[in-house]
Amino acid sequence: MNRTTALIVEDEKATQKYLEHFMASHFPQVVMLGVADGVSEAIDAITLQQPDMIFMDVEIKRGDCFDVLDAVGELRSELIFITAFNEFAVNAFKARAFDYLLKPLEDAQLTQSVGRCLERINQKKISGHMAGLQKIIQQSDLTLRHFSIHTTEGVEFVPLGKLLYVQAKGNYTQLYLQDGSKQLLSRQLKEVADELPVHSFLRIHNSYIINMIHVKKYIKGRGGSILMTNDVALPVSETRKQELLLKLGAV
Fold this sequence. Notes:
This protein is an alpha/beta fold. It has helices at about 15-25, 40-50, 65-70, 90-95, 105-140, 190-195, 240-250, and strands spanning about 5-10, 30-35, 55, 60, 65, 80-85, 95-100, 145-150, 155-160, 165-170, 170-175, 180-185, 200-205, 210, 215-220, 225-230, 235. It is elongated. It starts with a strand and ends with a helix. About 25% of the residues are buried.
């Protein structure tokens, strides 16, 4: 299981140093990703690093934490708010806050909060791992199922397990197979999509549908890209990124 990561979103130097020292002393197993003291820095850090846990002050440079949360959208991180003001609590919990702590911070209170937060994070990771195992079990019957390709000589049957991905080519669809061969179908991508099992195949872009058992790596980016087992990188559209990450058990 990947190590748990945390990010500090805070513009007060004293609080930054306190949290860094506290985590190093009490929870050394957590990898600290650094500090973001302003809105743009926080947006970049959260988007690129996808921390498991965020210590977040309400008022930061050039705005507040809610500007950050609005910009990053759907968030996988657990949020522990740290602030000198209690009037933001309602909005914080609407933003799915795990906890809301008032300054000055105390070791005992923070220890309890972080401990409970880590339990939740670990449970989410375990659940994601189990979901991945279930997907493998569900997909294990792919070698017994076939996709039919009509040719001039008749009908060719391709085992779904050997199908890497499909690509839209105007009114045609290109199939990319495990052995490196290609097949061009005189059907649009939507028609092909309707014939593929949804638990194993996923549309990641207007032009691509991938076989999840042949995913090698997800590469982060605005939408990101997927590296397939044949080392071909395929683009992921922003609108389909979240569904893909859920399928991969990465959120």
